[in-house]
Fold these 3 entries.
Entry 1:
Amino acid sequence: MIFRPICAAALTFLLAGCAGHRVIRPGRGLVPRPTAAPFDPRVPDFAAKPYQPFSREDAVAIAMREWRLFGEPVDDDPPGLRPVPPPELKPEREPGLWQRVGEYWFIGQDPELREGAWTGMHDEYGNLFPADQDDRYAWSAAFISYVMRIDGAGARFPYSPNHAAYIDVAADMALGRTSGYVVTAERPSAYAPQLGDLICFARGRSAGLRFDDLPAPAFPAHCAIVVQVTPGQLAVIGGNVDDAVTLTHVPVTEQGTLAGPDGGVLDTRYPWMVVLRVLYDR
């Protein structure tokens, strides 16, 4: 399987967001502004205070570091064509890597969420789950949350186990329905993604969703962070791609956009529907 970014369990699909200071859209009402994050002993001081400004350069470097940790895998194949390894050989379950996935959950999620205790192979009670059930513990949104948290986004990013949470907050930012977050939604045909931005598509039962449908009720999706911009192509890194942190190349127009003026997305593999422009401090 190529992308398994959102937990397939119905409970996760129904999860609208985080409790406490994290407000993830329960519907289409006004989204409150972020407030100061409470003390969380799981987040290191250098990220919580933070020591350095929330920066594009650091976000890319953090994503690249994690990619190197997983062995620098690259997957440019269409979904379903890449051979699937036996369950026992999945990278997310290898010694040293399942613990790293646990850190994405532990640091990337707010402390009241049960997902914060998951690993690449254990649930919140420490029970080993079968490798063929890992769709229920998909960690791609946890990876993005981890990168934003470690980079020092603080209370300004809507950390969640569900990509749709921050896609919808970004849409509300673009519509002027909330403020103070560091993500805002951009149309794929109108904005050229920059280093550190996120590109996203809806998947599974919601694959038909498009930019104009946002914000939408909780839906399965996948987002990846842009780590390289070259003429005609982006390189993006996503979590839980082939059960690893994996790099993918994405075609773009001469103007650097994912879609042409007619809205047609150049990438025939994935229906990228929105760019989340990240409002870095530097």
Entry 2:
Amino acid sequence: MAYLILGLVLFLGVHSVRIVADSWRTRMVASKGEGVYKGLYSLLSVVGFGLIIWGFGQAREAPQMLWMPPVGMRHAASLFTLLAFVLLAAAYVPGNAIKARVHHPMVLGVKTWAFAHLISNGNLAHVVLFGSFLVWGILSFVAARRRDRVAGVQYPPGKPIATVIAVVAGTVAWAVFALWLHGLLIGIRPLG
């Protein structure tokens, strides 16, 4: 569990700089250069992510159950993860109505993904992992919306075709992950 927590602190800590120290980040980019900052950011993110994977794998070998979620929560989690994948796709498809409406679909997708996994898993490692991402997602979303208000950011209205592309791309990615990749990478087949 220690490696999981260390990985979360490192990974989410790096990703929290804009939440807690945006002016410090701006000064660092200005003094060190964008390339150096992004390189260090990327290196720390990869190390943190690796520690999360390793620590989570170790914690799953000796699970500590906190509660047993009802079977129906797995079905609810599938629907929430579908929504999370659509939100993730909306972050990358330009000009869609989802991004125009929620402004930060990737962070909202992370929150939805974390929530889905929290309601369907009741062991300590899952609560630590997904609870951390959910708290980070909430704080990040609030900070991003605050930055938008301060900067006066306006999001153009989305176009129907871009929105359809985001929904279809997210749905296809969700299906591939739920039916095949989740089992291959995580060892759990959520839909079969």
Entry 3:
Amino acid sequence: MPITRVYFYQDADGRAPVREWLRELRLEDARGHEKCVARIEHLAELGHELRRPEADTLRDGVHELRARRGTVNYRILYFFCLFKGKNAVVLAHALAKGGVVPRADIERALERKARVTRDPMTHLHAD
């Protein structure tokens, strides 16, 4: 199975929010960071085949990567797209949460998905 290329969503100014969140997480919770990175790597390997408990579908094409460390639930919201004719996954938003993923966070990921759809060259950042 081919590896799915992972991109970070980036704003028009070049800021990649999930990448920045991961950098901060590495400083605050190194083991939590390791778990999130392992989930991202597994997503790259399995793509659409990744399932619970590591990933889940939220709505409108937005999915969540799920990692837990102690009582903290880390979530990275992502979506799939085609870029340059190849399967890609875009890491759109990240958060630490208690219960369900807040609607505002899902909406933020959906807005970013729309921006990528309109202008992928501006909004995709390969790390």
